[in-house]
Amino acid sequence: MQFYSTNRQSSQASLEEAVMTGLPADGGLYMPERIPLIPRAFFNNIAEMSIRDIAYVVASTMLGDDIDAAELKDIVYNTFTFDIPLRKISSDISVLELFHGPTLAFKDIGSRFLARIISHYSRNLDKPVNVLVATSGDSGGAVASGFHRVPGVRVFVLYPERGLSAKQRHQFTSLGDNVIPIEVLGTFDDCQRLVKEAFVDQDLRRKLNITSANSINICRLLPQMFYYFYAYSQLLSGQPDRIDSDGVVFSVPCGNLGNLTAGLLARKMGLPVKRFVVANNSNDSFTRFVRTGHFTPARPHHSIACAMDVGNPSNLSRITDMYNAAPAPISSDMKAYSYSDDEIADSIADLYRSHGYIADPHAATAYRALAEDLKDGENGIFLATAHPAKFADIVGRITGTEIKNPQQDSTGCISVRHDVPKITPALQALKKILITST
Ligand SMILES: *Cc1c(COP(=O)(O)O)cnc(C)c1O
């Protein structure tokens, strides 16, 4: 598979180039040059297949020419070390729980797949690959966990001295092995600047292989297609005679639109999707775009579904690119809704009261949009992107229940490593650590 840039200025890239550079030089985003159709026969057996086997078929349809079959199977199998169950909420609505991975959020899936693809390509190099990430919260944990103990790769997580909770810090300072936390005596902006400076530093690039695992890497996106197919598989095996022949309605809680882009790609590969429902919090720039056809970026503001506090979604250009040549406008394939914090809280309460289901604020946003949009006779699935334990305070308050963290030990104790190196926000200080840690 070759990958083109959505800006059409850079030349096409191989999978290896697209993954290892992350971004095309022209500032666009990589997209697969064609979307191969999965053979129809696959759907005859899909109801009996596991997430791993489904993922392998989809991955090899897309990347089969790039990575040897046994190798690709290994990468896919090691990505999905946890289940992604579909649970029935009502006769026509189910929820796909994407949050059973190590950091209790769906971003685990993209991070784990990307880490293993980078590891695969690191074998062509004589030195390990160094991944630099700056984090202000949860993203560092997901990336670090995805790369933890993956051979041929080291991860440096830069975080600001203030602003992270003990829990967030714990997610990457407690791993050890090839995950190296660095506390920067400065702000998150300093961390991001240091990462950028390291990338363009010629001296550093001569000495080390450096890459980024940023969220717009194409290999974080591709594995997110797999679970849409798996959701369909579980729906078929659960209620085989009630499937709308036009396909399923998926409701996606949207921030940077990675999840939605993956769903659109899955549909292009042949997954029967009737339409997508886009769920936004009060950061509604994409909702307005779907409704009016005009995009105006906005400054993000805080909401209770905070992972969707995005005013200028980074994957927007992938979606508009897919529709530039498409016969139908975006508004014919998706419906968009945006909700206030109060409406999201009501949805958490409603899901619990009416269906006994405890949802985090992001899943509850998607549920509300789906419930509003679904017509009689349709099958709807909403994506639950985070475990309610990640938002235990607010979800506990609304539902009046105690939300347990499935990963916490009986003492509820959080250990903190004490030997984290601290650096001043200067490239020289970062370079010293990168070059001396082996
Ligand atoms: C990142 C995130 C989202 C938004 O996903 P995108 O792919 O950026 O649209 C939704 N929910 C949770 C819990 C997230 O962490």
Automatic annotation (TrEMBL):
<feature type="domain" description="Threonine synthase N-terminal">
    <location>
        <begin position="2"/>
        <end position="79"/>
    </location>
</feature>
<dbReference type="InterPro" id="IPR001926">
    <property type="entry name" value="TrpB-like_PALP"/>
</dbReference>
<feature type="modified residue" description="N6-(pyridoxal phosphate)lysine">
    <location>
        <position position="107"/>
    </location>
</feature>
<keyword id="KW-0663">Pyridoxal phosphate</keyword>
<dbReference type="InterPro" id="IPR004450">
    <property type="entry name" value="Thr_synthase-like"/>
</dbReference>
<dbReference type="Pfam" id="PF00291">
    <property type="entry name" value="PALP"/>
</dbReference>
<dbReference type="InterPro" id="IPR029144">
    <property type="entry name" value="Thr_synth_N"/>
</dbReference>
<dbReference type="InterPro" id="IPR036052">
    <property type="entry name" value="TrpB-like_PALP_sf"/>
</dbReference>
<dbReference type="Pfam" id="PF14821">
    <property type="entry name" value="Thr_synth_N"/>
</dbReference>
<comment type="similarity">
    <text>Belongs to the threonine synthase family.</text>
</comment>
<protein>
    <recommendedName>
        <fullName>Threonine synthase</fullName>
        <ecNumber>4.2.3.1</ecNumber>
    </recommendedName>
</protein>
<keyword id="KW-0456">Lyase</keyword>
<feature type="domain" description="Tryptophan synthase beta chain-like PALP">
    <location>
        <begin position="96"/>
        <end position="377"/>
    </location>
</feature>
<dbReference type="InterPro" id="IPR051166">
    <property type="entry name" value="Threonine_Synthase"/>
</dbReference>
<dbReference type="InterPro" id="IPR037158">
    <property type="entry name" value="Thr_synth_N_sf"/>
</dbReference>
<dbReference type="GO" id="GO:0004795">
    <property type="term" value="F:threonine synthase activity"/>
</dbReference>
<dbReference type="GO" id="GO:0009088">
    <property type="term" value="P:threonine biosynthetic process"/>
</dbReference>
